[in-house]
Amino acid sequence: MFYPLLRNFLFALDAETAHGIAMFGVDFLQTTGAARLLAGRVPRDPRRVMGLDFPNPVGLAAGLDKNGEHIDALASFGFGFIEIGTVTPRPQPGNPRPRLFRIPQRQALINRMGFNNDGVDRLLANVAAADFSRQGGILGINIGKNFDTPIERAADDYLACLDRVYPVASYVTVNISSPNTKNLRELQRDDALDALLGSLKDAQSRLADRHGRYVPLALKIAPDLDDAQIQAIADLLRRHRMDCVIATNTTVSRVAVEGLPHAGEAGGLSGAPLFALSTAVVKKLAAALAGELPIIGVGGISSGPDAAAKIAAGASLVQCYTGFIYRGPEIVAEAAAAIARQRRGESRDA
Questions:
Q1: Which CATH number is 55's domain given?
Q2: Has 178 been annotated as catalytic?
Q3: Of 133, 178, 278, 303, which one is the catalytic site residue?
Q4: Could you tell me which residues come within 8 angstroms of residue 18 by beta carbon, excluding any fewer than 6 positions away?
């Protein structure tokens, strides 16, 4: 009963202000030991994906903790892995406020944050101060380009970030799919993506030799792709031997929220209205990839059955963001339990 009351208070505030207060509240819950009580018991359901051992398949998507300031507190809710970022080489303020909007009638958000973050140096300092990775937690770091870096030089920013975060990341996600950085999604085109993935994989090989450890690379894609684009991306992922694909980022479509307050705001739509679209992309990717690399399913998970449906569509792991905001910490245990039940059912059927 506690979280709905807290949500009512937070939802009376500007969305971005509420987010800041909520994250400090998360830190408080962790220090008092109350976080586990709110989250409930998360079943252990180990998965080996990308060569990494996950205690359960439910993770936190990038965007909630852009600078890695709350890693330990968020992990206390039982997430099987945490992804922080998106981080850019240099600090940047992002787009002007207001830039985050709720559509509570559909359990949705629209954001046009614009990769606001304190830069890779600050993120690395925050990671160093956290216990999560030292205790064996799986930490993903999501990287992007600065808004003022020309698109033809975007690879420079991704490579700079990869070089810096490689020693401390469990895996690195390359974000080319946010709709809130001008021209960023152009990197999903065949020729641009081919060149970018080639550069990243070359750098990954050099960094693995330098640091004596292999850090997997994941690519995060948009939901607003047609079948031919999905197939082309799948072909490039296989060709470059990428380690994972994350499907999907937010959508620019407004079909599911048309006519509602804030629906006309520019930015990416997340939450329940994204579920069907993102899950369809997961299913098409799974068919195109034929098991050659794993998929992390994200987009619109608002319940346990939603999480299980992502796995059924072909995902190996799932991530939550907007559902966590609307449902609170209980969604972690609920999603993990639904996936575990699904797995047990499949085992009996076999």
A1: 3.20.20.70
A2: yes
A3: 178
A4: 10, 11
